[in-house]
DNA sequence: CGTCAGGTAAAAA
DNA sequence: TTTTTACCTGAC
């Protein structure tokens, strides 16, 4: 293996990309169930000398078998292993504003969706939220409405079906009104009980629209602009969330998700700290970085976090 | 207790 | 069209 496909697995897992919550960590492995050709497979990833290795499990009492090469290909897609990092680093080094980033984010890669619906729920849930909270919420949602799978390594939960979310209750009250619990405090099978707050109706309505009017395959085939305008129609999806969905969920690498932090960082690096509006930052990022926009956004954020620039910009 | 967090939708200017 | 404001929730 040449050194271009290095990865920092832990950094990539914990970087808060809204394709999905981090996989379940057990010793030095990260594990999660991935549906491949309709078959649930437990993917186990671990890092060895900056490269990543995978092993797989099939459900107990099943006779599924899928070729390792097919599973490896899927794993490689999720961790974006075909992306040439050293070429990207050469690109960053050409811009003195960006050159310093590589030393803080070495091996950081896109963590792409294993399930597009999961990336949409995650992205909506992440809006005006903290990483810990939205990832906890999505994990809870999967435990409550996702199918459970038994592997030699334990139980894992898949992503709920669209119908499961559409039929879910939004809050304690709605659940209480529709069930025969004696006390409302017993209600916990509802979206708000997963800690999603006011995003509950967004998640439900967005899922209804996805189910009735949108097709993941169609969105994948669209141009970036067309796809952006399309998913912007989903409730709870503004420009930032739309770009997250397109980048982490649909692999539109030209997306430059722009939030308040990216705004501060880009303003600091490229506009002498002037207060540039978020939509302008987004335009700038897309024009300046082209197909690298998604990666530059990812690196900018973690560079700022790790270098201390973020604390500096807080003031 | 008040403030804040990786925005959005709805109201107001 | 652009700029404020309210908003679940849990952590400090």
Topology:
Layout: H1 9-13, E1 24-26, E2 29-36, E3 39-48, E4 51-57, H2 68-78, H3 85-94, H4 96-99, H5 101-105, H6 116-126, H7 131-145, E5 148-151, E6 154-157, H8 162-166, H9 172-178, H10 200-213, H11 216-221, H12 224-231, H13 239-249, H14 260-270, H15 278-289, H16 293-307, H17 309-314
Antiparallel strand pairs: 1-2, 2-3, 3-4, 5-6
The protein binds a DNA duplex (13 and 12 nucleotides) through residues 16, 18, 126-134, 192, 195-200, 202, 235-241, 244, 257, 259-262, 278, 301.
Explained architecture:
With about 325 residues, the chain is an alpha+beta fold. The chain has 3 domains: about 1-115, DNA-3-methyladenine glycosylase AlkA, N-terminal domain (TATA-Binding Protein), CATH 3.30.310.20; about 115-235, Hypothetical protein, domain 2 (Endonuclease III, domain 1); about 255-315, Endonuclease Iii, domain 2, CATH 1.10.1670.10. The chain has helices spanning about 10-15, 70-80, 85-95, 95-100, 100-105, 115-125, 130-145, 160-165, 170-180, 200-215, 215-220, 225-230, 240-250, 260-270, 280-290, 295-305, 310-315, and strands at about 25, 30-35, 40-50, 50-55, 150, 155. The strands form 2 sheets. The chain has a 4-stranded antiparallel sheet. Strands 5-6 form a two-stranded antiparallel ribbon. Helix 12 (about 225-230) packs across helix 13 (about 240-250). It is globular, with a radius of gyration of 20 Å.
């Amino acid at each position: 293996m040449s050194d271009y496909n290095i990865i920092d697995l832990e950094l990539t897992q914990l970087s808060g990309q809204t394709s999905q919550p981090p996989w379940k960590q057990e010793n030095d492995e990260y594990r999660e169930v991935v549906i491949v050709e309709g078959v649930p497979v437990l993917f186990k990833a671990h890092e060895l000398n900056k490269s990543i290795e995978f092993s797989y499990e099939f459900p107990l009492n099943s006779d599924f078998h899928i070729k390792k090469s097919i599973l490896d290909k899927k794993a490689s897609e999720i961790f974006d292993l075909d992306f040439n990092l050293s070429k990207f680093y050469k690109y960053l080094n050409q811009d003195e504003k960006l050159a310093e980033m590589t030393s803080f984010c070495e091996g950081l890669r896109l963590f792409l969706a294993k399930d597009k619906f999961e990336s949409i729920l995650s992205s909506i849930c992440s809006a005006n939220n903290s990483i810990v909270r939205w990832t906890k919420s999505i994990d809870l949602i999967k435990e409550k409405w996702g199918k459970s799978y038994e592997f030699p390594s334990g139980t894992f939960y898949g992503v709920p079906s669209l119908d499961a979310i559409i039929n879910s209750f939004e809050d304690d009250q709605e659940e209480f009104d529709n069930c025969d619990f004696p006390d409302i405090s017993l209600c916990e099978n509802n979206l708000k009980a997963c800690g999603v707050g006011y995003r509950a109706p967004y998640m439900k309505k967005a899922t209804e629209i996805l189910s009735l009017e949108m097709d993941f395959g169609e969105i994948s085939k669209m141009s970036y602009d067309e796809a952006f305008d399309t998913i912007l129609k989903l409730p709870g999806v503004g420009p930032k969330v739309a770009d997250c969905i397109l980048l982490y969920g649909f692999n539109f690498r030209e997306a430059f998700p722009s939030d308040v932090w990216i705004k501060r960082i880009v303003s600091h690096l490229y506009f002498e700290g002037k207060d540039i509006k978020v939509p302008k930052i987004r335009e700038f990022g897309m024009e300046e970085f082209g197909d690298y926009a998604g990666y530059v956004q990812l690196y900018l954020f973690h560079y700022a976090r790790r270098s201390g620039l973020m604390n500096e910009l807080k003031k």
